[in-house]
Amino acid sequence: MRSAARAPASDGFPALRLALAAVAWVALYLLKGAAATGLAAGLLRLDLSSRLGGAVHFFVFDSIKIVLLLVGIIFVVTVLRSFFSVERTRAMLGGRRQGAGNVLAAGLGVVTPFCSCSAVPAFIGFVAAGVPLGVTLSFLIASPMVNEIALVMLFGLFGWGIAGLYLVSGLTVAVVAGMVLGRLRLERWVEPFVFETRLGGKVVAPGRELSWSERVEMGVEEVGAILGKIWPYLLVGIGLGAAIHGWVPQSFFLRYAGPGQPLAVPAAVLLGIPLYSNAAGILPLVEALHAKGLAMGTTLAFMMAVVALSLPEMIILRRVLKPRLIVLFIVVVGLGILGTGYLFNAVL
After folding, report:
1. What residues are paired with 321 via a beta bridge?
2. Spans of all domains in the chain
3. Contact 328, 186 (CB under 8 A)
4. What is the C-alpha to C-alpha distance for residues 88 and 246, in angstroms, rounded to an integer?
């Protein structure tokens, strides 16, 4: 007996709803400056040239801008990912060798954005599917570090030049670090149960193709789920950025991390490791630090350390990696981030 027919891709396409939502999104984005000024200067009667007024305006403006960017990007990425499952990702990476596998894994890490909370199941799933350890580590590094949300937001904040350099440098760190770690044959430093895990069922589950209505529903649900998880960190990040923008003097950052300070990049990396945030949440702070005079390489090194070497992620990874591999992972990725920071400072 034949299974149920696949739903056509055009079934129930919600064109009108999507068009209205897009118009509303664009209108809100264009009005974010007026909204921030109206709240800070009009409703609260603050002087925008004062520290408090400038900080409040920065907070409201960036909150609206970043939330709108997150909503749009998460929705679009989720709809695109509905055509490209995790099972297909594992199937593409399985059996790949060093080099090409690392490049492919790092590229997939950009478009399949796992955060640190999903690092353990992703790691186990890839290794259990036969993906080499070094290739898996390239994916694990690239996924949080080269975040597509951060890429688009960097473009909005600093332009394509900075966004492109961020993409190239992050992918380079992920590929090179994965190749180095893979060549060291460190499987003995992975917890044994990872290799004993077996993936049940088929690689690609059978079933009908999703309709466009279902894909849109998935996008809306993913927006709510992700914003529900990260909004406290997002507001904290924007709040820190607003505080730095309004109160911290430029001379403070220039003294310790400004031009001519050879230890500015290592200090930024060490400061970022204990923190926890995703790339979108840390970007407001990056923007504020850069506005205060920090070199772009120093600020990006700080951001990469937060999203790729955060202490909470290392604690989670301890479930699958032995301490020596975690330390080596931090050293190799940290050196790549340091190189990126110094390179950006040299060319920008």
Report:
1. 190
2. 15-83+213-245
3. yes
4. 47
- Which stretches of the chain are DSSP H helices? 15-30, 32-37, 51-81, 86-93, 100-111, 119-128, 133-145, 148-158, 160-183, 192-196, 212-246, 250-257, 264-272, 279-291, 296-308, 311-317, 323-347
Alpha-carbon separation of residue 174 from 234, 240, 250, 330 (angstroms): 25, 29, 33, 12
- Tokens linked to 226: 């992700």
Q: For residue 190, give the 3-state DSSP assignment.
A: strand
Comparing CA positions, the residue from 134, 87, 116 lying closest to residue 273 is 116
- Nearest Cα neighbor of 289 from 345, 245, 230 is 245
Instruction: For residue range 262-283, list pLDDT tens digits in order.
Output: 788 888 888 777 665 666 667 7
Helix (H, G, I), strand (E, B) or coil at 321: strand
Task: Give the span between the Cα atoms of 338 and 171, in whole angstroms.
Answer: 14
Q: Do 293 and 253 meet the contact criterion of CB atoms below 8 Å apart?
A: yes
3-state secondary structure of 178: helix
Q: Tell me: the pLDDT tens digits for 113-136?
A: 555 555 566 677 677 667 788 888
Mean pLDDT throughout 206-210? Answer: 55
Tokens coding 276: 């926890």
What is the value of pTM for the model shown? 0.61
Rounded Cα–Cα distance for residues 247 and 55 (Å): 8
What residue type is assigned to position 226 of the chain? I
pLDDT of residue 119: 57
Are the beta carbons of 63 and 98 closer than 8 angstroms?
Answer: no
